[in-house]
Amino acid sequence: MSAKVAVALEIRAIDMAKVLLVDDDPTSRLTLQAVLTMGGYSVDAASSAAEAIGKLESTEYSLVLSDLHADPSDAGLQLMAFARSMQYRPATALLTSSRTVEIAPVGRVRGDVLIEPQDVPELLEKVADLIGERASRMLQRELRQSRN
Fold it and tell me: Which helix (H) or strand (E) holds 109?
């Protein structure tokens, strides 16, 4: 690989939003990781909430996507709560393939956005929206702090 190509790849990696994808099903995890990577995101994957917590503590993510039905049954919700407690405040969303989940009026359950990954364009749109909303919140916070 030439030096120019290596530099270009490094610059692109810096510009890409980092997503942490958590799913205990290897097929789903690898498929979603490929879709998100092709969608322009830098994706780290974890197969458990415990593995994801370690990654959250060592890397700053723009978005954390977790399977709602991870083992144990409430691991996805617990992981979302942990992610929201991080100082850098990543956006969070739960993945579900089940339409039987009790969904609140705006597509949220216990404060978390629910995404059905079967519709790839919709998945990528929601991911972009969540990352954009987070970036907007961060900018607003920085502006408020600079005024003080």
Answer: strand 108-109
**Is domain 3-147 classified as CATH 3.40.50.10300?**
no
Domain ranges of the chain: 3-147
Positive or negative torsion for Cα 101, 102, 106, 111: negative
Q: pLDDT (tens digit, 9 = 90+) per residue, 56-107?
A: 999 999 999 998 877 677 788 889 999 999 999 999 999 887 654 444 333 4
Q: pLDDT tens-digit profile of 15-47?
A: 689 999 999 999 999 999 999 999 999 999 999
- Contact between 136 and 89 (Cβ < 8 Å): no
Residues 6+ apart with CB under 8 A from 67: 22, 23, 24, 25, 28, 76, 94, 95, 96
Please give the order of strands across the beta sheet that includes 91-95. 42-46, 18-22, 63-67, 91-95, 112-115, 108-109
Distance (Å, whole) CA 133 – CA 57: 22
